[in-house]
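We store amino acids, tokens; thus:
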Amino acid sequence: MSGGGEFTFLEFFAGGGMAALGLGQRWRPIFANDFDPMKRAAYGANFGLAHHVAGDIHALSLADLPADQADLAWASSPCQDLSLAGARGGLGARRSGAFFGFWRLIEALDEKGRAPRLLVVENVAGLLTSNDGADFARVVGLMTARGYLVSGLVLNAADFVPQSRPRLFIIGARAADASIFTRAAPPSTPPALAAAVEKLSPESRARWRWIAAAPGRRRNLALIDILDDDAAFDAASATRERLSQMVARQRAVISELQASGARHVGAAFRRVRDEDGARRVRIEARFDGIAGCVRTAAGGSSRQIIFAIDGGKVRSRLMTAREAARAMGLPDTYILPSGATAALKLVGDGVAPPVVAWLAENVLEPMLARAQKAA
């Protein structure tokens, strides 16, 4: 930690810098990396590229990293092979296996006595059950073998923004910095996390700790509050087609909302379901004030559909890139790529900044500040 209350961090798999945005003004980036040129351009547009190193993480070496020890290394490693929506190839698969490129660099820093004081590995909650918990155990085992005490939290962006986005945060700390870790699991521990911890090796279990802090619901925005009022709706025929792809229960919900005469908005995904031995395309909508998880724009089912019901009339359209960014908690001042597909890919691959901000305020900063005060 440098003077003036400033913390330093390394941001691996930086994407558009959403972890940096969440960490905020108390944190100074001294390194960022991503291999995607579009994401690098977005990072540069919002944060500059003075500390950004482009390229595949497997090709980086110790020489590419800062000479100074960082307070934190943040890694939002690729999740495609761990997601419940994907093929679930696990950490051994090509994309999510990029984690090991990151870990190789942490080990190199540790060999030189420059390992970060804190680590955060962020990924989908599917990491807890991938390969029957073996992938989670491997990540924790690597961290504990390097002397870190390790804990974890599952945080949902829905506590902060109008989007359901549960994510796993695995946190490593040196003993001197682990002041807020506890040995007792809090009552709010998700069953999947508790079960995954039970499957850790005895060595990892001995170095596993818990975090009692949990966010109170802070969200003060609903889906309707982040929509673009001037976004054009699709033709009525497109809405009729979408409604026809809903099951009877969903259409009944729409009818009830129409009959109320009030204004309602919802978000929906297109999904393929097995029904009576046949594959059918279904539109599945929710009208509870939040969107489903914002995803990358690859594939026809990945982009959410907005339904607006007002005065008995139903209209629909695709969610805009700026609306997706707002659902992530990005301010309108954040510069998105100009194309909708590129912007949605950037947003869908990111971490929600308000969640990062809560983690920094309630977990990371208290640990570092207490250790500095004790010194």
Remarks:
- Residues 325 and 331 are 8 Å apart (CA to CA).
